[in-house]
Each structure stands twice: as C-alpha cells, then as structure tokens.
Amino acid sequence: MKIETRLGNPNDLDELEQLYNDLCDHLEAHDNYPGWKKGVYPTRQDALEGIEENALFVATIDGKIAGTLILRHKPEEADLSVRKE
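Structure (tokenized):
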C-alpha cells in the first residue's frame, strides 16, 4: 500500500464531502472524541476554504482520498455546542 500526499484541489470536493460525512456518521455511532458533527464540522465549505488558502492536503491510497489535513497559522474557532458535559 502506497500513501501519497498532495495539495487538495476543487476536483476533490465531492470526495472530501463524502469522506467527512462518512466519518461523522461513524463517530456518531462510536466514541466521538473530536466532537465533530455532520453538517457542522468538517464540511464541504471547510474543505473549499482550505483549498482556496492552499492549506488543505489530502492523503491518497490507490488514487482514493483516505485522509485530509488543513495546515494554517490561525486556529479554528471552538464550537462548544457539541461538547459533552
């Protein structure tokens, strides 16, 4: 298995959105340590902003996106509404 990384691009948006939705569905059914919520974070819009800033990278396996990472100098705002008490 060969993992490759590259900058994300607009052609990745559909696949990224599906990856985020599938991941959020999995987290909802299991321990959700990051507190991600489908439709709240991460979203297609988050991916688009990362791509526009040249800050979104994707990891691919056999040409399919298996992971994503946004590297930027500004922190994300915390969404305390998804935090468990």
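The radius of gyration is 13 Å. The CA atoms of residues 50 and 56 lie 5 Å apart.
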